[in-house]
Design goal:
By secondary structure, the protein is an all-alpha fold. It has a domain of 28 residues. 45% of the residues lie in helices and 0% in strands. The chain is rod-shaped and about 100 Å long.
Amino acid sequence: MRALSLAVATALAASAALAPLAAAAPPAGAYKAPRTAFGQPDIGGYWSNASLTPMQRDSKLGDRLADTIPGSRLVRLPGTGRLVPEEAPETLTNMILEFVGAAGMVARTE
């Protein structure tokens, strides 16, 4: 009987301690996402770069893009990666000028 009284007393104390927390909870649907000083949603926090998305682009996509631009051709520059303007600026500039000149947009001066 004494154990039952102790259990009841503990349950009452716990519910009395937790009652203010339940009363302070905002009503459902009242949550507002935190905002930055500029009024944008604050998405700071811990983010993971783990991804199942492949980081290599399918090689067929380059061919498909070249086929959609009239008069274009796909050129693969050996020894370059994603930063062609930094890795081969002269080659890229010459190719762009050749393409634009062939389209009659600019005259090449040299």
